[in-house]
Design brief:
The complex is a heterodimer. In chain A, 83% of the residues lie in helices and 0% in strands. By secondary structure, chain A is mainly alpha-helical. Chain A has one domain. The longest helix of chain A is centred in the last third of the chain and has 48 residues. By secondary structure, chain B is mostly helical. Chain B folds into 2 domains: 86 residues, Rna Polymerase Sigma Factor, Chain: A; 74 residues, Winged helix-like DNA-binding domain superfamily/Winged helix DNA-binding domain (Arc Repressor Mutant, subunit A), CATH 1.10.10.10. The chains are: A mainly alpha, B mainly alpha.
Chain lengths: 213, 164
């Protein structure tokens, strides 16, 4: 006899081998909260949006940013900020659109694809922010070098001491290290959080894809 | 209205709860994990219920949501660690229904099932539930031919496990 047929016979035979939950027990369950990965992705994504918006607001209010106002930097920074907000709105829209399409009643493959799509939108948003961070830093540095009186004074002082090169090198290295550390920590965080959360989904999605090759 | 919806849902679920138990049996290996997954499937079903239309059978709809939860949505909770293990046949069975060899075979088969990956388990589950390949392929989102090919491979795999 076919092994699976033997199994099937047993599988469909006994109904009383399973626990029998009562109406009330089931009712209590529907009042509980889901702990599905979709919910977690949603929460983490929202936190990411909040985090990046918060960072940009925080940077705007710092002393050094206020000093920028004196440098006639509006022509550069206002468009930069506007682009930032437009892109935030765009990603937010995509994210919610994707999120809405996730449905447990889709077939397994479509469901997985929709979840991965939501995740991808947020990934792109994070990538955008990292690039944005690097570009902003470069622009800020250009302004610092050219317009910031305090900075220029420090450069002049260093030049007078014959240490101009050392000053520039140290400065650039410090900025680079800060950027690399910041980006590294963020990437590590994403890798850990999403890696753990999506490990199973990725594995099963690959398995399904393999089936359809 | 909401109360009515709740009532009709819980009543239907109570009647069809074995479908969920069967999914849990395949995807978990201890009592707490079983309950945990059962709960998550119930929540997912309830969330999807307002969109459930009578055009599909309630049980068919349950298969889909149940399997999707087990292979995609479910996140193991910490509660499921540190509990006693059971194999697939731990649920009480009537001794007189089995002769020794058959019982032994079944035990081995259930153990073998537990070793399959999540996707293979889903295919076997639908097969055991007597679903045809059209429904299996629609539930999983793969082609019917591939579902059939895969099923044959699983059968061979199980055969080798049973008769090494």
């Amino acid at each position: 006899m076919d092994e699976l047929e033997l199994l099937k016979k047993d599988w469909n035979k006994e109904d009383n081998k399973y626990p029998k939950l009562t109406y009330n027990e089931i009712y209590k369950m529907i009042l509980k909260r889901s702990s599905s990965i979709v919910k977690w992705i949603f929460i983490i994504s929202l936190l990411e949006f909040i985090f990046w918006t918060f960072i940009s607001l925080l940077l705007k209010d710092t002393e050094s940013m206020k000093r920028f106002d004196q440098f006639n930097s509006d022509a550069v920074f206002i468009p930069l900020m506007a682009i930032g907000y437009v892109i935030l709105a765009y990603f937010f829209y995509c994210f919610f659109k994707n999120y809405k399409t996730i449905s447990a009643t889709d077939n397994a493959k479509v469901l997985m694809e929709n979840i991965l799509k939501t995740r991808k939108t947020v990934k792109q948003y994070v990538a955008f922010n990292l690039i944005y961070l690097v570009i902003s830093t470069i622009i800020i540095l250009i302004f610092e070098f050219n317009k910031d009186s305090i900075f220029i004074e420090q450069v002049n002082q260093a030049t007078a001491n014959g240490q101009a090169l050392k000053f520039y090198v140290l400065f650039i290295i410090t900025v680079l290290i800060l950027l690399v550390v910041a980006i590294g920590v963020l990437l590590l965080f994403y890798w850990a959080v999403y890696g753990l959360l999506l490990k199973r989904l990725n594995r099963n999605y690959k398995e399904l894809q393999k089936l359809d090759e | 209205m909401n109360k009515e919806l709740e009532h009709s849902f819980v009543e239907l679920l109570e009647k069809h709860q074995n479908i969920i138990h069967k999914v849990c049996r395949l995807y978990t290996n201890n009592y707490d994990a079983h309950n945990d997954l059962f709960q998550e499937i119930t929540i997912q079903l309830w969330k999807a219920y307002p969109k459930f239309r009578g055009d599909a059978k309630f049980s068919t709809w349950m298969y889909r949501v149940g399997l999707n939860t087990a292979i995609t949505l479910y996140r193991k909770s910490k509660r499921s660690i540190n509990t006693q293990q059971f194999d697939g046949v731990e649920f009480k069975m009537k001794a007189e229904d089995y002769d020794d060899t058959e019982e032994q075979q079944l035990k081995t088969l259930y153990n073998a099932l537990h070793q399959l990956n999540d996707i293979d388990k889903a295919l076997v589950f639908l097969y055991l539930e007597d679903k045809d390949y059209t429904e299996i392929s629609e539930t999983m989102g793969i082609s019917e031919v591939n579902a059939r090919v895969k099923m044959n491979r699983i059968k061979t795999k199980l055969k080798t496990i049973l008769n090494p």
